Amino acid sequence: MNLQSTAADETFRKEVATWMQKHLVGKYTSLKYRGGPGDEEADPAMRKEWERELAAGQWTCVGWPADAGGRGLSIEQQVIFHEEYARAGGPGRMGHIGEGLLGPALIKFGSEAQKKEFLPGIVAGTTFWAQGYSEPGAGSDLANVQTKCWQEADGSWRVSGQKIWTSLAHESEWIFVLARCEPGSKGNKGLAFLLMPLNQPGIEIRGIRQLGGGCEFNEVFFDSATAQANHIVGAPGDGWKVAMGLLEAERGVSTLGQQMHFTHELDLVIAAARATGKDKNPQVRQRIANAWCGLRVMRYNALRMLSGDSTTLQREAIIGKYYWSNWHRDLGKLAVDVLGPLADVPSDDPAIRPLQQLFFFSRADTIYAGTNEIQLNLIAERGLGMPREPRPAA
């Protein structure tokens, strides 16, 4: 990746910023800076409409190849798009799981028929997906999934089991599911990657109410639910390969947009410090300075990890989740420390409520998508080549 902006890059940056200024207005104004982690319940119907607005401007799937319906933008242009989208206050993307996770997996592993069936709806912002990975006993240890699937005589698949922490399943039409297709298999062997409609007999969705009041997560129960014969990605037993390819996409360029949202949150913390007089406190000032420095470290590591020529993320990507989740959790603690007693009283004040949400949701940052402990093992074993941690005997 070229770390120096060219004249063409700056022209493109202006194009994105101008489009956002012209379109994130009127009925969409209320969506600015809404719908991110911890706030995903914010006006889902309007955010779905916003997805279609983006699609009309050809701003969905910007990094996908043109033959898959995307714009085929360079890494540099994708970074610019995500940064300017977040800088303008672009809302959390209802189509993120389809565009950022499933779509790239189908482009890499899916059949031509699957690409033709599923990619257009993602590009158009009309079809929304949920991720069926985590289970009560398989979170960070994804290879421990117990949901089972089996093939019927007509070739269709049946699925029974439970998934949990399924983001916006109640707002989605489809779910991709990692399930065990070989009885007696263990770990990452014997898994299948299935595409399933959520509105069908045998699937029940139950919301999970969180400490902060939101309910964007769900439990999803499968009781002999059906996936069509041609809706398995790869062959039976290839599920782990597809699942890992999908998670690799998750660590891609959208992380730069996430960091721009973090910048907005830090700005809110600074404004609150000034309003409460905490900006005069030397310890608070030091913590704000440390947060600012941490953001720069995140940015340059993200650019470094995207700088290789390979489609596989660089080794630097391994430290990303551990670093940003701990940084963000610390920012949440700083937010309530700056607010002082105001943090303890439920509020709809736009200067207070986002910081309360930041604190509550960031408590989970070091747990979901791989706990700190799992991330440190990955850094040690995959990044540094150290011996694997001893595992209990099976």
TrEMBL record:
Entry cofactors: FAD
All residue ranges annotated as the Acyl-CoA dehydrogenase/oxidase C-terminal domain in the record: 237-383
The keyword Lipoprotein belongs to this UniProt entry's keyword annotation: no
A GO CC term assigned to this protein in UniProt: plasma membrane
Keywords: FAD, Flavoprotein, Oxidoreductase
SUPFAM superfamilies xref list: Acyl-CoA dehydrogenase C-terminal domain-like, Acyl-CoA dehydrogenase NM domain-like
Domain Acyl-CoA dehydrogenase/oxidase N-terminal: 8-125
Acyl-CoA oxidase/dehydrogenase middle domain location: 130-223
GO terms for MF: flavin adenine dinucleotide binding; oxidoreductase activity, acting on the CH-CH group of donors
Signal peptide positions (record): none
Family: Belongs to the acyl-CoA dehydrogenase family.
Protein name: Acyl-CoA dehydrogenase
